[in-house]
């Protein structure tokens, strides 16, 4: 059975740099607060009308495809991870296929909705397809246009200052080389914490999960149909912007990141001293530093770029991995560890022998 290897990798971030100081024009925050709590100095925001989650994905994908030495038409499956899709439906996978100009190939396109761990989930799915021999050139993309969906008033500052826009892509291919490519992936979730980091509307829940339905704008006596996806109430109460219980997420993240890294290492009989580079999901620099300490890794063994791009959710790992590779920090035969934790809660890890 072949392993899957990353044959090509690319990323794209929009040109527009938004500094912490710029955010102070829209909300009550400071550069000092943001840097101290998150490590973020600036992030990129897409052009509202000229760039989309899919258009950024196209740019990253074209680089990955070129570096893999294949043509777009050779792609035989698309996996697209995002929490900020261009449309509620259909997903971005088919839009990416269309925008790449390869609709004639009629290949399958799958959307992954696992937020910060979307790329790792996508990698794991791609790995299984390649191992079974079903596909030979899978395009896996993580892309986010967060700037469109955040609350940039002081009400939303706990969330809005963290996120940035961008896209990262890889092409996965089979390799017959022993002990090369994706060695293992580990996936986990805990749905009991779903609302701790969520954007619950627009959605079709109708208050189902909430005892106090009125607090979510639903009158139990109302038996009319429709009106659930976008209501004035949703907009007035800003339920269309994300909610995050930051401290709860932080506490769980620093526990689950090291746990899932260790689980993957144990499975293949390796230790943290074998790691050449850990590329953690860029959620918060403090989380990455905590994980580094827990795993006993040196600064050289961990790659962070949240300082420049903020948290780009499904795109953060491929962007950071690509940047690390371009900077010569990912070399042949290196043991690369990817790990993520986020909304769901979902978390996961992947070990790659480059
Ligand atoms: N500027 C200034 N003050 C702020 C800001 C801001 N941008 N945001 C919040 N505050 C204030 C709060 O109002 C609060 O004030 P109060 O004490 O007067 O009530 C105070 O700062 C502390 O707020 P906390 O939310 O407790 O701050 P915390 O130290 O927890 O940091 C943070 C917040 C950065 C969000 C942190 O909790 C965190 O990083 N959590 C994890 C995030 C994460 O990993 N998410 C997962 C990935 S994202 C995904 O999956 C989509």
Number of helices: 11
Beta-strand content: 15-25%
Look at the structure and name the CATH superfamily of the largest domain. Thiolase/Chalcone synthase
User: How large, in whole angstroms, is the Cα Rg?
Assistant: 20 Å
How would you describe the shape?
A: globular
**How do the strands of the widest beta sheet line up side by side?**
1-7-6-4-5
Unreliable spans are none
CATH topology descriptor of the largest domain: Peroxisomal Thiolase, Chain A, domain 1
Q: Which distinct ligands sit in these coordinates?
A: acetyl coenzyme *A
What does this structure look like?
With 354 residues, the chain is α/β, with parallel strands linked by helices. It is built from eleven helices and 13 strands. The strands form four sheets. Strands 1-7-6-4-5 form a five-stranded mixed sheet, with helices on both faces. The protein has a four-stranded mixed sheet with strand order 8-13-12-11, with helices on both faces. A two-stranded antiparallel ribbon has the order 2-3. Strand 12 and strand 13 form a beta hairpin. The chain is globular. Acetyl coenzyme *A binds next to helix 2, helix 6 and helix 8. The site of acetyl coenzyme *A has 24 residues, from helix 2, helix 6 and helix 8.
């Amino acid at each position: 059975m072949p392993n899957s290897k990353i044959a090509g990798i690319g990323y794209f971030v929009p040109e527009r740099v938004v500094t912490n100081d710029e955010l102070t024009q829209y909300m009550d925050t400071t550069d000092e607060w943001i840097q101290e709590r998150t490590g973020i100095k600036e992030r990129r925001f897409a052009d509202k009308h000229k760039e989309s989650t899919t258009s950024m994905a196209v740019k990253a994908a074209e680089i990955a495809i070129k570096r893999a030495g294949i043509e777009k038409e050779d792609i035989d499956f698309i996996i697209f991870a995002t929490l900020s899709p261009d449309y509620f439906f259909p997903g971005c996978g088919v839009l990416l296929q269309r925008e790449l100009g390869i609709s004639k190939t009629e290949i399958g396109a799958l959307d992954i909705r696992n937020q910060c761990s979307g790329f790792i989930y996508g990698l794991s799915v791609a790995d299984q397809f390649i191992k079974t021999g079903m596909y030979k050139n899978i395009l896996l993309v993580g892309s986010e246009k967060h700037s469109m969906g955040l609350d940039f008033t002081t009400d939303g500052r706990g969330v809005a200052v963290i996120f940035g826009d961008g896209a990262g892509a890889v092409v996965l291919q089979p390799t017959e080389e022993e002990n090369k490519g994706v060695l293992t992936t580990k996936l986990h979730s805990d749905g009991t914490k779903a609302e701790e980091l969520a954007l619950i509307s627009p959605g079709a829940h109708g208050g189902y999960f909430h005892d106090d339905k009125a607090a979510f704008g639903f009158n139990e006596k109302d038996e009319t149909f429709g009106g659930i996806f976008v209501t004035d109430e949703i907009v007035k109460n800003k339920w269309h912007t994300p909610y995050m219980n930051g401290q709860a997420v932080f506490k769980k993240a620093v526990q689950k990141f090291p746990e899932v890294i260790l689980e993957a290492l144990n499975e293949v009989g390796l230790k943290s001293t074998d790691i050449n580079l850990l590329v953690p999901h860029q959620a918060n620099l403090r989380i990455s530093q905590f994980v580094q300490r827990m795993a006993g890794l040196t600064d050289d063994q961990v790659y962070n770029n949240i300082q420049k791009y903020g948290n780009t959710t499904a795109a953060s790992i491929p962007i950071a991995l690509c940047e690390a590779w371009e900077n010569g920090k990912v070399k042949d035969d290196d043991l690369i560890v990817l790990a993520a934790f986020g909304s769901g809660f979902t978390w996961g890890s992947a070990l790659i022998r480059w």
